[in-house]
Amino acid sequence: MGDVKSAIAAGKAVLGIEFGSTRIKAVLVDEDRKPIASGAHDWENRLEKGVWTYTLDDIWTGLQDCYKKMAEDVMEQYGVKVEKLAGIGFSAMMHGYLAFDKDGNLLVPFRTWRNTITQQASEALTEAFQFHIPQRWSIAHLYQAILNGEEHVPQVDFFTTLDGYIHWQLTGEKVLGVGSASGMFPIDPETKNYYTSMIEKFDELVAAKEYPWKVENLLPKVLLAGDPAGVLTEEGAKRLDPTGTLQPGCPLCPPEGDAGTGMVATNSVKQRTGNVSAGTSVFAMIVLEKALKKVHEEIDMVTTPSGDAVAMVHCNNCTSDLNAWVNIFKEFAESFGVEVDMNKLFGTLYNKALEGDKDCGGLLAYNYFSGEHITGFEEGRPLFVRKPESRFNLANFMRANLYTSLGALKVGLDILMKEEKVAVDRITGHGGLFKTKGVGQKILAGAMDATVSVMKTAGEGGAWGIALLASYMVQKDAGETLEDYLQNKVFGGDEGEKMDPDPEDVKGFDEFISRYKAGFAIERAAVDSLKS
Questions:
Q1: Per the UniProt record, which residue ranges are transmembrane (predicted)?
Q2: What are phi and psi of 29, to 5 degrees?
Q3: What pLDDT shows up at residue 532?
């Protein structure tokens, strides 16, 4: 306790703050990179005129409240004020569109990653670049605004992501970590900068419009993990801490996206490693050792914070329907006057699934609360389907709902593992699906036919991940790579609890996914017949 107090008082602590979809979280770490204090602020996006957005006021009040709670936690635990910091890092959900004019005025409300209003631009840019451009990417938003003839486009002087915006406001630097930048515009893994050929192609596409800008001049400068990215200005210090306690001058690391911080927090930045984050949505990130053979619309190409190529499979639906079914069992139990412990209920039902048939006994479920681009659905309808002869029991029912939580992900991963023959040495699972020990881990190992590890530290999340990136910038030795820093100084070789795939699970999941694909017509009929 005394050492931590002294470190904080001496300004040796490092702060990481991440803006998630529903929570802003701050984590303060000591010189050993251990979390020593935290703060959080809950927030929600809003649908305004058909656009999912947060206001600038939402951003700043949320950030200040989050920082204030972290500082209060420090005072409560250690009795000292946070006056100086050794480093700060900011992270946020990737993609989206924040566009500003030359005077720094926001031109249109922030368009978040959640918006699916750029299909025309996404398809046109994918065709022009021969590189998959998802709808949520920043360049798709800019091009869609151009296709729409929106009045603000000629005035754009700079556009960025949420983490890039906050960093800019606090340091004056228009920069972005390469991982976050790779969700704005395609990154060339060789140069670790925007693809020159695609920059030129974009300018050709819009040349007839005669805009007073070139797209390269609108984008943030790309930085790699460990690069200095500016310092906290006097004005920035007051915006972060309106009490005036925090002093300016602290160095900031390159702002990064939540995908990058997830890779860091799970020690998954090395080639042939990957991670799967499974909660409300689910995504897999696999660091490639060689380029994919062709473009796949199901696969997004991004990078690690060091600029190495990453194949990303992103799905909108994971545990929402599973949680809804668990709540049905909770209601059932409460109807008999039984008081329910939710952790015990989840654990009991999840473990029951392991008793089921490997192929779920012929049962089929779709967990689509919303659309799922990987399987071609613009809307979703949760479904449970069985044939009269299917083996319908609790174990198979729960197993089917666990399998389908990874169903769309499995479709995308099969492209990587089976078609592209991507090699993976280690996958780390994190998120709510893995809270019940050994169950989600076993299901994922079967889905991927790969060894899956689960780490205790993975629960620290992206705020810890960006704090690690800030610590790396401050502490790294000459020539020390991010991979070596994480492996040797942060995780100490700890790869978590490993689980190898059971061949019978692999076979059973393959049988389930064949049924899953064959049943798409059922889901399509539900979407078409049950209108919102």
A1: none
A2: -120, 155
A3: 66
> What CA–CA distances, in Å, run from 448 to 337, 373, 443, 444, 503?
41, 20, 9, 6, 11
What are the φ/ψ torsions at residue 25 (nearest 5 degrees)? -130, 135
Q: How far apart are CA 395 and CA 361, in angstroms?
A: 9
* DSSP code at position 438: T
**Computed from CA positions of residues 143, 148, 151, 152, in that sequence, does the dihedral angle turn out positive or negative?**
negative
422's tokens:
């991507």
Do 122 and 99 contact (CB within 8 A), yes or no? Answer: no
Judging by DSSP bridges, how do beta strands 175-177 and 221-223 pair with one another?
parallel
Burial, 279: exposed, middle or buried (Cβ in 10 Å; 0-12, 13-18, 19+)?
middle
β-partners of residue 491 are none
Domain ranges of the chain: 320-369+381-405+503-529
Q: Residue 394: which pLDDT band, with cuts at 50, 70 and 90?
A: very high
Contact call for residues 165 and 109 (beta carbons, < 8 A): no
pLDDT greater than 60 at residue 459: no
- Chain-wide mean pLDDT for the chain? 95
Cβ atoms of 182 and 133 closer than 8 Å: no
Q: How far is CA 169 from the centre of its chain?
A: 23
pLDDT over threshold 70, residue 105: yes
Q: What angle do CA 425, 431, 434 make, to 5 degrees?
A: 75
CB atoms within 10 A of CB 327: 13
Instruction: Say what the pTM is.
Output: 0.89
